[in-house]
Queue: 4 jobs
Job 1
Amino acid sequence: MGRPLDIMMLAGEPSGDALGGRLMAALEERSGGAVSFRGVGGERMLAEGLDDLFPMAELSVMGLVEVLPRAQEVMRRVRDTVHAVRAARPDALVTIDAPGFNFRVGRRLARSGIPLIHYVAPSVWAWRSGRARKIARFLDHLLALLPFEPPYFEKVGLPCTFVGHPAVEEGKNADGSAFRARHGIAPGAPLLALLAGSRRGEIERLLTPFAEAAARLSARMPELRVVVPTLPTLADSIERRLADPGLRARGLNAIVVRCGADKADALAASDAALAASGTVTLELAMAEVPMVVAYRMHPVTIAVVRRLVSVDYACLVNLIVNRAVVPEFLQEACTPDRLEAAVARILVDRSSREVQIEAAREVRRRLFVTDMAPSHRAAQVVLDVLGRRETRLASASAGK
């Protein structure tokens, strides 16, 4: 283009921040450093040089009921962001997940002349399939994480590229042995990872049954160790809750890991996991860690979701292999006794473990696109979209 690229990026939660940080690093590398970034992101994106408009924490909300008390604030930020994008006229706007916020911004910028690229396809294959046609009206390109997603959008005229899932590259250099050595965990001691989510609402609903199940297992298996990877912003609160005397009395003495590189090492070191349904299940699959998945939503939110959902599974691993490999315990089924029994089985039953490990390898094969890492493939698609636009503008100018 003859000048540095100016790209605006918007992420609304920690998973989007991680995606955005890797995408920024890949764009920096593939453009030879000729790119600058501004927008909204978290620690990962700020570390890559993002000039931020406002703190990402203001947007980290999920659920119909949960977002209502902050609706006015979120809409104010939508207006502020649209104004900032129009004023900046960046070469592209890349929005990352968080459709509740990002699609509101995108709709207001339709026909602005600014290329709109969204990273993480909404789950139209699971619920509200009509969303595909609606977002095709304002997006220029969609980057999909799952291999079966592009046809849902291409059939309504929205260009969509499967770039691969970030879980493929997230833990590729993880060292489970080093993690055990750092934390004094014997090589043969069973290690259980508890992953109760990355949002405060998820922690509120899931940490108690997860911790109770782990405490019961600890009472039965004195050699069991427990690790809880989480975000720095949640770690202190989680440590306080896990210090409950009732849990400690039954032998639960969890190691709380404040994410970063230590999270990947913790997963690589684990023998089993009890996890919230979400992206982390694919990270566990990449590490070949057998798991039990659970989730709870606000009762009003789940009542609406149950009317709209059209898939048989919640866990991404089960969705990708299209069979019930990972045990799922949702809403009222998410109880300490059921979780305890399911985790105990994958800790001691070799056949149950082998079934999950083979499914994890199948997931890896399906998520692997080329020799190019997902973040670099996404970066190349962004650059290709901008290159095609530049060619069209040059042709139009020459024709005048």
Note: The domain at 5-164+370-398 is CATH 3.40.50.2000 (Rossmann fold).
Job 2
Amino acid sequence: MRDVERADQWCRTVRERAEEISNRQLFGFCRTHYANVLTVRGAWSDAERELADATADFATAAPGGMPEAELALAEIRRRQGRAEEAQAICLRHSSDLAAQLCLAELAWDRGDVRAAAEFLDRRRRRLPEAVVAADLPGLELAARVHVAAGEREAAQRNTEMLAALASTTPARAAAAFAKGISADPASDEARPALEDALDGWDASGMPFESARARVALARNLEANGRSQDASRELERAAETLAKLGSALEPDAIDRPLARASGAGAGELSAREVEVLRFIADGLSDGEIAERLFLSPHTVHRHVANIRTKLRQPSRAAAAAQAARDGLI
């Protein structure tokens, strides 16, 4: 639930108990979880030191716990902008649920929305339905993926599921962020929701997430003609990333959302372009649905939107027009 304060308290309690009984295995797990707390709080150097100690504890008492420590390090590397290192770690443990979530985030970071969706789907297939409904990190990323793919109805469903989990300030911020990016950028809901996300993550001491909210807010402001305000938010996001020691530029955060936040009515979403490519290859709506793990109804809606945007009477004519325009 991203209850950072409560997690910190429990880590300290468990550490005290581990010290009392000199349990190295318990030390290792405690340090790994505490490193996750430090990572979210932006204390990445401290988190790395905890993970180094955790690895030593696991090597002595519980080698099976080492992947957990390694994957916690992968998430730090991802946030630092060291994607290749993070990817290498995750691929060593590719069947691990945490690795699949990190791989989905890495795919998202490089703009590969389809790969991000596939990693998420692979992870979800292994989780009971009740767990999927309570999977805050997975739901948060899924909302971003659906928005980037132009699937706003699915994004709205994810937002509603996140809202149902919003029992902590960070969780409420995540739900507000999902609401902000899934709403029409010109609506009365988008900007206030993104501001609420920023305020919530700021109050929770989660600087990387705060930078993410500032970037989304900047894109919304730019889409609504407020360039000066947008530049101010981007500058503050850049300051936060630099202070954290991240090599990421603000424009690199949630890049697939950039088009979704500022696209005009006649521009195609990333998912619509993907559907167009399959149409050009001769696939039916049902076949496209199977390839993209979507419902036939969703694909049919994408095709209708594509025809409207390209002003073409049929799916074949839309694909031909897109090819002539260099869109596919």
Note: The two ends are 41 Å apart (CA to CA).
Job 3
Amino acid sequence: MTNRSASRDLKDIKSKVGRMNEAIGEAEKQSVYSWLRSTDPSKRYHQACELYESDTGDWVFRTPEWKAWVAGRSRCVWIHGIPGAGKTILASHIIDTLKRMCRQGERTACVYYYCYFGNRQDEAAPLLKWVIDRLCREADVVPQCLYQLFRYGAEPSLADLLHALEAILQEFQTVYLVVDALDESTPRVDTLRVMRDLATDARFAKIRVLATSRQYIDIENAMSQFSSPISMRNKWLDEDIHLFIKTQLSTNRKLQRWPTDLQLAALEGLSAKANGM
């Protein structure tokens, strides 16, 4: 296919999308969005934001894996750590940082999804539905293939949803997707397959995926094939913990009264025993 014919095909696709959206009223768009939404993760995102401590979490932005991911040299980053390490709160901080980045760029979006064991579901379909919903609202566009699925009325397959995601991506240059707590998807076979497709399939080259989870063997076996891993036990986090404890010792009125040698001992002892938490 020549560049000219490829360009013509892309224009045809956008023209069809445009004609479809002219035919869909606002009320009908809202019906499509309501049909898409099965799980809303925004509550968990807001809860995590409330727990975020200022000036923490910036360590991740100093890692070579993050820098390669933001620059587009890597399509997927996987952050793993033990329970209580702060992965969910870190994810909220990353999301807020990406949102600020997206406001400075054109046709760029940040979408998040929080898996949760209380949902008692494989999060693959709810994840895709939420991402498609967010991107459609961002672009104010309902692709024809998605509208046809809505009109058909049946539960869409994962293949259907991936096709709809491919269609709405035509409206964007880059999409950052943050998925927290893969381990809380129960079961998670399909969720891990979707992660693989989003990170490796050429159809989704515009998407950059960042996922967090515990280091379970099935997740590690899957994610290690296509992601750049970042452990929550690392020198950058150790530096942040050391700085946080030092700040607390110097600003807390009660702790300021401690003798210098006791403060130093507390600083070294707590930093060493933090265990990445």
Note: Strands lie at 76-80, 108-114, 174-180, 207-213, 228-231.
Job 4
Amino acid sequence: MSGTAVTIGAYDGVHLGHRALLRELSELAAAEGLSTVVVTFDRHPAGVVRPESAPPQLTDLEQKLELLAACGVDRTLVIEFDRVRAEESAEDFVKEVLVDTLGARVVVVGEDFHFGHARLGNVALLTALGRNYGFTVIGARLTGDGSGAVSSTRIRTLVAAGDVVGAAKLLGRPHEVRGTVVRGDGRGGPLGFPTANVEVGEDIALPADGMYAGYFTRADGSVHQTVIYVGRRPTFYAPGAAPVLVEAHLLHFEADLYGELSRVSFVSRLRDDHKFESVDALIAQMHQDAAEAERVLSAER
């Protein structure tokens, strides 16, 4: 290995701020004849260090790796983050990973970067260690959009509020969740709106309860205009009696989707979730939702 240009982080979402940093990494690597490496983790470190308050994730590991590869990164090193890793000092992490494993010559991180046990490591410490081990450290300024820094935290807040348009502007793409289509309670078909009940990981960020226009991507790569429901079906269940579901009604489509791995992306919020006075009122609203979703998605395309 002739040497590498490395960046380190959770890279949750691989958003526009991350991409700006990766472009800087690639430019520095090209100038020095180095390969690029992203060091990331198999789970968010907060899930181990403070699981009670760990943030929901914008991407699962598979999607994160796909997005990083699409940014032109040569390699991604995924480190298992467990309790032992959480207790590791910043100095030991640098020696083991950056020096001995990767032969780092350039390290690019955000200016607010922290690492190591109790997050005691920062850009200043990393720079000092770089002088000892022969690598240069760049503390990159955070990318902003006029309303603040582009960050995973900010995007999670937008997603949680149902502002999927705002989240997409910072992600550079619609927010997406992935999962297997499983059997639900079978209400959609009799109502005239069969849905794919997508089982999403518990640690994945979901938009606020409501109806959305978006896309459903099947395992075969085909993409379908979709009305997406996120919520607890208050017309049929008492508050708190049902779990949050992600249900996708594919427009102008009929097929058995059970067991398929799927991707659901959120383009626009159509309305809030609420309890209807009757099933007929719900069905009437669902027709309106489908028509509005088709209008929104056709205009967007």
Note: The longest strand covers residues 261-272.
